Amino acid sequence: xxxxxxxxxxxxxxxxxxxxxxxxxxxxxxxxxxxxxxxxxxxxxxxxxxxxxxxxxxxxxxxxxxxxxxxxxxxxxxxxxxxxxxxxxxxxxxxxxxxxxxxxxxxxxxxxxxxxxxxxxxxxxxxxxxxxxxxxxxxxxxxxxxxxxxxxxxxxxxxxxxxxxxxxxxxxxxxxxxxxx
Length: 181
What we know:
The chain is of the alpha/beta class. Helix content is 30%, strand content 28%.
């Protein structure tokens, strides 16, 4: 019952960027590659890049502490793994649970469907965040894939037009090794 000095820092976050990370979990993401001096599967490399981007790497990346970040994963089908959140520790638990598709019938690369799902999640982000006292400065999708669209209902071009109509930028990151990347 005596006075104590707290060591917790409280940050008042009022604005940032809404980011949907769109991660390929198709079977081809199991191929190994050299990454930062190690042999890792493409999916494990993506997970490390994702973690460094969100939390910071301690070297060159400072992290995204003020940004709402969500996660969509896809193979033949796209799924929301995490809604947009400022609680990045919880987001990392979802990332840790991400695995390659295990059923051959579910394998494929539905880039268009994944982009459309991410765009739909971001479309409402501004309104929902504003009601909670948070201002979304911009909306961004970061797609990380090693493949070519070969599944799903919507083409990547259709999804890109939809995102553009909603004011959402898309950045695509190709994962792999060799001259095509």
